[in-house]
Structures are given as structure tokens and as C-alpha cells.
Amino acid sequence: MKIVSRNEELLRDALSCIPQPSSRTSLAGCNRLIRFEDISAAAFKIQCGVQKTPCMYSRLSKQYGMDIYLKKEFLQYTGSVKERGVLYLLMSLPQEQQRKGVIVASDSNFSMAVAHHASELRVPVFVILCPSTAPARVRMCRDYGAMVISYGSTAKDAQLHARRLAQENGYLYLEEEDSAVYLSGLGTVGLEMYEQVPKLDAVIFPAGGHCGLLAGSAAALKHLNPHISVIGVESESFPVLQESLKAGHPNDDQACNNHHFYGDVSGVCFGNNSLQLTGKLVDKVVTVREEDILISMLRLLEYERATVDAEGAIGLAALVAGKLPELKGKRVAVVICSGNLELHLLQQCIARALTLDNRVCRFSLVISDYPGDMSKLLELLAREEARVLDIKQERTFVTSELFTVEVICTVETRDKIHTAQLRNALLERYPTAAWTER
User: Fold this and answer.
1) Residue that wins the pLDDT comparison between 9 and 393
2) Is the pLDDT of residue 2 over 80?
3) Cα-flanking dihedrals φ and ψ of residue 307, to 5°?
4) Is residue 104 part of a domain?
5) Would you place residue 371 in the very low, low, confident or very high pLDDT band (cuts 50, 70, 90)?
6) Are strands 102-104 and 172-173 parallel, antiparallel or unpaired?
7) What percent of the chain has pLDDT over 70?
8) Nearest to 87 by CA among 125, 60, 56
9) pLDDT of 113 higher than 60
10) Please, are residues 130 and 153 in contact by the beta-carbon 8 Å criterion?
């Protein structure tokens, strides 16, 4: 892939102000300044080990008034974009270290990517997890080929044990950070999108506590075309990146490392490299509500048949929430970076999203307990084309007249307009009908 740079100076200026960070792992030698050449080298080296994922035109484009292209990184083998940085990191290790092995201590997408690619490269890999880790995550790490060890009662216990094992046995302890090697691997997403979608106006990335993808890809995109807007999106509940940019250093006051819904975007694991690159090269960082993320997950499932987690849906959530009106009529790429959502959580998310989208509603009303009255209610719902999901009758604790029954009904509608029509029809027939507010 031949790429001609049009903005060498901008990237060089951004990197010139990045101080050398102190390493949080034993990869101190890898913490140097990221260059465009590093990203290009990473793209060449990992091309046979990761998917070149599609960046496809989305049917959501008409709904939001712009040409939307979705970069489907959740199609990677482990369901996460983290594979790019992990593979390049592992391939860059000295042969002696590859022979000894690596060790990680979390149930994140990063750890699953390490488990898979280390096994593929025949590097011994150990994953230390606390007993409270979801069984599905434990099983996946084992299936990818890692030796999984359960230890301690908290994630911190597992991390301390992993560090001790690394020191005693010569393993390399890895945790997600912002070494130049890791950022270069993640930055290959920017190269691919630039090649796949001509005349891009803007690219939207997840941000939050893990902004390596945003920083690395911004370095590539701004190097190639400084006029492309690079936008980061993080949760309103955990504005980690915004607070860090204001403070001028990584700030974990807003972090929440135990939030299962947000996963990798709720904690802080970036350093000065990522932060300085983001501050210099990223045009905008916006926040979105949890409700917007849930509806974004629903849109992706319905329109793209894509089952993604909060990290994967958060970029599109900025468009769902109308946070970027300046992109109307523009050509926009959105990175869908992760699809690792536990099944029980997926079920809860979709049910909640349908309610937020005014497509599942609940009402209660009191009718007489005589034959035929219930059938009249069901006939009304059928006439209004509402699908009954659940219906309950309460007789014992009804406080109104004798021989009446309280009916609590949950129904599914097409959209907000259909819900309003159903509500009007019910109130006309049953003036005392009460709707449960979401």
C-alpha cells in the first residue's frame, strides 16, 4: 500500500512536545516517539496476522443525514481492534523474551488478544484472573491457548501475583499502555480507512480511558490529510479523556474500573504519549449519555446485524445523540472497535434500548371483571397493531369498585408515533389508563 504524505510537519510538531513517559511495564525500551514510518511498518508486518476489516457504507446514512461508513473492527478474531497493537507488540519482542513467555492479569479485550496472538506465535502466555471473572471470559482465554490461573479475590491481587510470577520466571508482564510499538499497531486502522474511503471528511473513534486507538489513528490520518476531522467520543459518566486534557496529565479521578457495561472505556490506561498526541491532533472530544449508547447498540443490531458492546457503539452514539451537527451532509467513518458483550448483559441492553426508543411501553387500567371486557381490550390492541408482550391481572389488591380487575400490560410498538397513537386510543376508551414512564 503506497501512501503519499501531505502533512509531515503537523505530525512532527505534535511528537516534538511529547515527554518520555516512565514505563508501567517492562517495555521501557518501546516508549519512544511514534512516527508515521512506525505505523507504516506495523501495517506491513501485521498484515498476515489480523483481518483487513471492511469499511462499509451504512444504511443508517439516510436516517442521520450524512454518508456513514462503518469500520467493522469487531470482526477481528477476538472481536476487538486491540489485536493490531498486541500482534505488533509481540512480534517486536526479542526472540529470547518470546521463548520465555508473557503474562497478563485482566479479563479485558487486550488480554484476550494477547492470549490468541501469543499462542499463534508459539509464545508461552499466562493469564491471571480473579475468581469473580465471568466464566465466558475465562473459557475464551483458554480456548485461545493461554494458561489461565485463578488467584486472589480482587483484580489487584491477580495483578500483583502476575508481576511476582513475571519477576521469578522471566516472563514479560504486559498491560495495556501507550508504547510507540502498541500505538503504531493501533494506528494501522487509520491507514486502512484512508485507503478504503476516498474523500473522508471526518472519522469518529471511541475515546475514554483507552485512547490509544484514537491517538495512533489520528497520527496516521493527520499525517496523510490534515483536513480530515478526527473526533473522539467518551461516556458522560466517565469523561476521563476530557478531564485529562484539561489537567494536562492522565487523570483517573473520573475512572471506574469495575463497570461491566462500559468495559475498557471506563478506566485509565493511557500515558503522556497518547494524551499529547490526542491534544495536538484530535479536533474534538464529545461525551454521550448511557441512553445514547444503548440506542446505538440497537441501531447497529437492527441495521447492520452487528452485535457490539458499549466501546463498539460509543462512536455512533455521538451521531445518534445529535452531538455532531456540523457533519450533516459530510462523508464520515465510524470505528466499531469491539463486539465482546456477555450474553446476559446483551439481553438487558436490548430490552432497555427498546424502551428508550419508545418501542416497548407499559400501561395499567381498571376494567370490570365480567366476561368480554378483557377481549374488548385485546381487540383494541389488535386494531392498533400493538404486539402484546406481557399481560397481568390483579384482583385481590384493587382499591376501586368491587368486581373490577387491574390490568398491567406491556406492548411493543413500531416507533414513537405509533406509541402516541396507541396511547390516544386507549385514553379515549379508558380515561383512567396510566402509563409507566421510562
Assistant:
1) 393
2) no
3) -95, 105
4) yes
5) confident
6) parallel
7) 88
8) 125
9) yes
10) yes
Report the C-alpha gap between 403 and 426 in whole angstroms.
Answer: 21
The CATH code of the domain that includes 140 is 3.40.50.1100
265 pLDDT above the threshold of 70: no
Are residues 334 and 214 both part of a single domain?
yes
Structural domain that includes position 394: 359-435
User: In sequence order, which residues have a C-beta less than 8 Å from that of residue 4 and are 6 or more positions away?
Assistant: none
Read off the amino acid at residue 415: D
Cα(221)–Cα(55) distance, integer angstroms: 15
pLDDT per position as a tens digit, 139-155: 999 999 999 999 998 88
For residue 208, the model assigns a pLDDT of: 76
Helix extents (H) in 34-154: 36-46, 61-64, 82-91, 95-100, 109-120, 135-144
Say yes or no: 343 and 210 in one domain: yes
Question: Would 190 be classed as within a structural domain?
Answer: no
User: CB under 8 Å to 340, separation ≥6 — which residues?
Assistant: 78, 79, 80, 109, 112, 263, 309
- Count up the domains in the chain and report the number: 3
Chain-wide mean pLDDT for the chain? 88
Claim to verify: residue 211 and residue 160 sit in the same structural domain:
no
Identify the pLDDT of residue 13.
45
Q: Please report, to the nearest 10 degrees, the dihedral formed by the alpha carbons of residues 45, 93, 176, 82 taken in order.
A: 20
Judge whether 215 and 33 are in contact, CB under 8 Å.
no
